[in-house]
């Protein structure tokens, strides 16, 4: 088959080459961006008197027909056309004739693909932000109901101090807020137009890059053509941003898996978002959070893949760069479905507050409070207070009880400076509510944090 670039070739390409070289089977996803990019380019060429008004009308109508053929499934995608850029241009020329052949004036596939892919990534960046906001709203609803629900706060997966479940969820809200901000920041940096960079060095045609940038919604035009046609930072940024977001999702997922176990029984995922076992009839498995945890791996893989593709590439465009798309497509799809299903799983799960609270009655969660009491009320240096508290914990262990249930007489025996008001400090709810320092777990502080996230979502309404 005759290629668009076949002028200097004597023999035609082998089928094997066509199959190996083609990106059309996946880059066709960019057809809207490609057509919009061509329309903007043609408008600018007309404005600059490089194309006539009649030619612009033909191109505009022709591209509208191509678009409808693609959307109705009539359009023939062929690996012999190599990529969507050539496939669309070939069909356009078949429909409108010579005007179609003029469209590529002052343009190269190198800037064309950079425009299409960048715009696709920028749009998906906004979609991911919107999904993150919906997830945050759902977490906020649950967190708001549980600002008094005690849950053991852990370090090293060991009971540490009593917190409340709302506060625990606020930790995830903090992560997802940062994910949104990272995407917003990346959007601003990447919203720069590559169009008009042509192959690598610009063009002698009198083009207007500001005009096409504006038509396509870019904030500005790129500064250096050589960099622009080979720059894939925008793709790396979204992969990194999705990777970080999936890392956060995987951490929450891990907790959902643990909390669903009999050993924890802190939550129960709804039947709608749980699965059964093919052999064990009693099973209800948390496949959703497990898969979310697992899918994080493929996203990291795409990030590492593209970093490796880009490593050591000489300027400017190299065909290696064609390997930039599939990992990004897959990661974006993974991100969007992950956010959606996580939101639904959280919305429909049952929170077993009672079990969370009873889990607090083991592990001596109030130990730090006893030490704090000794410091605050008895003027004992913290190190010494730590030691005395350790002895109180040992006593509780010996009695087979939790420190929060110890009788006053035992504490008095350990240190005569302790008064009866110590018992107030050992009540778990009081312990949680005592942590009133900024960002702390007390119900008052947790409510402040929820208000902060509510305001963030309000300020970031689309
Ligand atoms: N299909 C190519 C890609 O995705 C488009 C750019 C091709 N440019 C070239 N000079 N061969 O990267």
Automatic annotation (TrEMBL):
User: Where is each Fumarate lyase N-terminal domain found?
Assistant: 7-301
Q: Which GO terms describe its biological process?
A: L-arginine biosynthetic process via ornithine
Task: Tell me yes or no: is Amino-acid biosynthesis among this UniProt entry's keywords.
Answer: yes
Task: Please give the GO cellular component terms listed in this UniProt entry.
Answer: cytosol
Q: In which pathway does it act?
A: Amino-acid biosynthesis; L-arginine biosynthesis; L-arginine from L-ornithine and carbamoyl phosphate: step 3/3
Q: Which GO terms describe its molecular function?
A: argininosuccinate lyase activity
Q: Does the keyword Transferase apply?
A: no
Q: Where in the cell is it found?
A: Cytoplasm
Q: Which residues form the Argininosuccinate lyase C-terminal domain?
A: 365-433
In terms of CDD domains, this protein maps to: Argininosuccinate_lyase
Primary residence: cytoplasm
* Catalyzed chemical reaction(s): 2-(N(omega)-L-arginino)succinate = fumarate + L-arginine
Q: Known InterPro entries for this protein?
A: Arg_succ_lyase_C, Argininosuccinate_lyase, Fumarase/histidase_N, Fumarate_lyase_CS, Fumarate_lyase_fam, Fumarate_lyase_N, L-Aspartase-like
Q: Which domain of life is it from?
A: Bacteria
Q: Which UniProt keywords apply?
A: Amino-acid biosynthesis, Arginine biosynthesis, Cytoplasm, Lyase
Q: Which Gene3D superfamilies match?
A: Fumarase/aspartase (C-terminal domain), Fumarase/aspartase (Central domain), Fumarase/aspartase (N-terminal domain)
Enzyme Commission number: 4.3.2.1
List the NCBIfam families. argH (TIGR00838)
Q: Which family does it belong to?
A: Belongs to the lyase 1 family. Argininosuccinate lyase subfamily.
Q: What is this protein called?
A: Argininosuccinate lyase
Q: Which organism is it from?
A: Sulfurimonas hongkongensis
Please spell out the taxonomic lineage of the organism that makes this protein: Bacteria, Pseudomonadati, Campylobacterota, Epsilonproteobacteria, Campylobacterales
């Amino acid at each position: 088959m005759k290629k668009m670039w076949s002028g200097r070739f004597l023999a035609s390409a082998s089928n094997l080459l066509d199959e190996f070289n083609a990106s059309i089977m996946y880059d066709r996803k960019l057809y809207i961006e490609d057509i919009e990019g061509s329309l903007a380019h043609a408008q600018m060429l007309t404005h600059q008197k490089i194309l006539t008004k009649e030619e612009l009308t033909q191109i505009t109508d022709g591209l509208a027909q191509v678009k409808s053929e693609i959307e109705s499934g009539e359009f023939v995608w062929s690996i012999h056309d190599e990529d969507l850029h050539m496939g669309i241009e070939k069909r356009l020329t078949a429909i409108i004739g010579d005007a179609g052949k003029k469209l590529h004036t002052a343009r190269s596939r190198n800037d064309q693909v950079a425009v299409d892919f960048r715009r696709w990534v920028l749009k998906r960046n906004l979609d991911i932000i919107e999904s993150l906001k919906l997830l945050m709203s759902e977490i906020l609803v649950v967190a708001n109901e549980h600002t008094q629900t005690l849950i053991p706060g852990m370090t090293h997966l060991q009971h540490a101090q009593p917190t409340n479940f709302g506060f625990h969820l606020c930790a995830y809200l903090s992560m997802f807020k940062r994910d949104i901000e990272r995407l917003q920041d990346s959007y601003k940096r990447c919203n720069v137009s590559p169009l008009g960079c042509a192959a690598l060095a610009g063009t002698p045609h009198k083009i207007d890059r500001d005009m096409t940038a504006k038509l396509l919604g870019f904030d500005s035009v790129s500064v250096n053509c050589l960099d622009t046609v080979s720059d894939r930072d925008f793709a790396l940024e979204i992969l990194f941003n999705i990777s970080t977001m999936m890392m956060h999702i995987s951490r929450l997922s891990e907790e959902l898996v643990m909390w669903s176990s009999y050993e924890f029984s802190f939550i129960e995922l709804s039947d709608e978002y749980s699965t059964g076992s093919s052999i064990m009839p009693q099973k209800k498995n948390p496949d959703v959070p497990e898969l979310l945890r697992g899918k994080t791996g493929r996203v990291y893989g795409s990030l590492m893949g593209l970093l490796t593709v880009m490593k050591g590439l000489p300027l400017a465009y190299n065909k290696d760069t064609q390997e930039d798309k599939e990992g990004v497509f897959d990661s974006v799809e993974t991100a969007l479905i992950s956010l959606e299903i996580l939101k639904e799983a959280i919305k429909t799960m049952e929170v077993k507050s009672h079990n969370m609270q009873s889990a607090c009655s083991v592990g001596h969660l109030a130990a730090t409070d006893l030490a704090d009491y000794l410091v605050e009320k008895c003027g004992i240096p913290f190190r010494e207070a730590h030691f005395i508290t350790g002895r109180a914990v040992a006593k509780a262990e010996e009695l087979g009880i939790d420190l929060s249930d110890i009788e006053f007489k035992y504490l008095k025996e350990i240190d005569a400076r302790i008064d009866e008001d110590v018992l107030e400090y050992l009540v778990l709810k009081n312990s949680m509510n005592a942590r009133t320092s900024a960002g702390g777990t007390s119900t008052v502080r947790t409510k402040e944090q929820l208000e902060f996230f509510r305001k963030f979502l309000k300020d970031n309404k689309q």
